[in-house]
Each structure stands twice: as C-alpha cells, then as structure tokens.
Sequence to fold (188 residues):
Amino acid sequence: MDYSELLTKRRSVRDYEDKEVPLDILIQIINESCLAPSSSNRQPWRFIVVTNREVIKRLSDESKRNLLHDLERNPDFMSSNYEALLRNQHFNVFYNAPCLVFIVGPKKLLSIEVDCALAASYFMFSACAKGFATCWIDLGRFINDRELLDLIGLPERDRIVAPVIIGYPKDIPGVPCRMGPEVLKIVS
Fold:
C-alpha cells in the first residue's frame, strides 16, 4: 500500500469482527508507533493493551459514569447529543472491539498531548497497513477509579491521552467529505 492509498484507507471504524488481534502483530504496530516524532525526542509514550472483554466493558462503564457526572455539573462540558448514548446501558464506548490500546504518558509533561497524538497517528497508520482498523475513542479516557487504573497498570504519574481500539473491520467506511485547507497567508 503506498502512502496516498494509506491516507484514504485509514478510517475510523466502530464495527469489528469477533476475532482477536494477534499479539505479535500488535507488538509490531506498537514498535512502529514509537517511530513517531516527539518534543525534544523524549519519546514519553507508554502503551497499555487490554484484550479482556470484561475489563474493556468495565472501563467503558467507568468512563460513561464520569462523563455523565461531568455533564451534569457542567452542561457545556460536551454536546448534549451524547447524553442519551451515555445513559444507554448497552452502549460500549469502545464499540465491543476485541482490543483496546491506551497510549499514556507523564501528567506533568507539557507536550504529552502532542507526543501521544503523534504516536497514536503512527499506530493507526501501521495498523491500517497491516489490514486492521482502528478508532481513537476520546470518550474512553475518562477513567478515574484508582482500582481500575491499577488493574490496567496505569502508574499514578501518567494519564491516558489516546484510547485506540483495534480489530478486524466488518467493513471500512468511505472517505467522508473533507473541507479544503484554509491557508491564511503565504509569506515569501
């Protein structure tokens, strides 16, 4: 797959086959993710892999609970369109994917959002090149329960930046309509 094809084939997928992602391929994808650039070449990202469906469901329920709590305290926190979905006991924020990867890093590092976002991008492109589908699930980063965070191995010094689901896609959606770039100015 050439680069242009990779750009059009990488889509956010929310419907997966009930088939496990082989761990050796997942490790390859994680290794390729670490080729991403980072501020001062710190490479601060770490990865947590969850394939236990019961744990993924618990993480989803915890995230939904925290999001609803935040929404009740501050109605401007997020679009109210999500409220009904979050209240649906059958809705899994991770779309019942067979594998969830948290890309995490130090809370105190100012560049952690950008550094982990770059690693997540490399992760998603690597997965696509290997025939897998992914989706960055921002709703899935609202995990506060320390017992659950300990269960998945998140150190207290770190935070979740990019929860990414991965699996074999049932189908791949087409490229959605994109707006052209808005070039504000070219200074020459």
Remarks:
- The longest strand covers residues 158-167.
- The mean pLDDT is 94.
